[in-house]
């Protein structure tokens, strides 16, 4: 059974990574989105960000080179990713439910990194693993693992209750949303129960991680813990196949929509894409658009839909 568990975890890790790559490529290949162009854009020069300006303030701005400041983007992205800043500001009740779920997941991801480091130390530097560094690692991954699992489960339960009881959310709730939250609760619950109920002499998470790296099929892992590991692996493989992969789309939403202030210069890649888009033949239901699938986007965009009525 241990060989099956390890096989599922390896396959799940591959499917998760492959699914994330496929999602990222899919988003990257999408047509140019209608840009927001709301200033200040965080990657502008700091003195312009302070007053909401942009590089358009410069005389002959199209002749000079532009500078992009990653620090400005990180100043906005880090609080948003870690603490869901926008949700906190605009929907505090939902933030109370969503923040523990997401922050718990972040802690669990960090726990996986710490477990991997501890396992590698045990394999490559046993003396170092047995020293104070190994003890600190043990304390760190136990603390983050317990806190992360507890917070993620609490958040999932609160979100599930909200989906089932909040009338405002019913319009946006489908069976898949309920299933996803139940999947998280079941996977994390089984893993936590297996870890806490393991008997004396049963391997801990660091030992299991080391066994996974060496594919030690003879390792005696308690059945409940194996169930939790398999469920967590299946959950990881499942995430990129659903809208829960929004963590990938969020990058493109910020950089390709909110913060994209690149200029459409003659002969640029943007111009080439737009010229291609103008040849598309849209088929939209709105009658005032007169987009019947026969006329090109250029024809639709340059036609006054009310011209005939005025006559």
- In the CATH hierarchy, the third-tier topology of the largest domain is known as Fumarate Reductase Cytochrome B subunit
What's the structural domain tally? Answer: 2
* CATH class division of the largest domain: Mainly Alpha
Helix content: 55-70%
* Number of DSSP strand runs: 0
For the record, the CATH architecture of the largest domain stands as Up-down Bundle
Helix-strand pattern:
HHHHHHHHHHHHHHH
CATH homologous superfamily annotation of the largest domain? Transmembrane di-heme cytochromes, Chain C
Unreliable sequence segments: none
Radius of gyration: 26 Å
What is this entry, summarized?
The chain is mainly α and 311 residues long. It has helices at residues 2-28, 46-51, 70-83, 85-90, 92-124, 126-129, 132-165, 167-170, 175-196, 205-214, 223-238, 246-258, 269-277, 297-301, 307-310. The chain is elongated and about 80 Å long.
Question: Could you walk me through the main structural features you see in this protein, from its secondary elements to its overall organization?
Answer:
The chain is mainly alpha-helical. It folds into two domains: 2-258, Fumarate Reductase Cytochrome B subunit; 278-310, no CATH class. It is 67% helix and 0% strand. It contains 15 helices and no strands. The longest helix is centred in the middle third of the chain and has 34 residues, at 132-165. The radius of gyration is 26 Å and the shape is elongated. The mean pLDDT is 91.
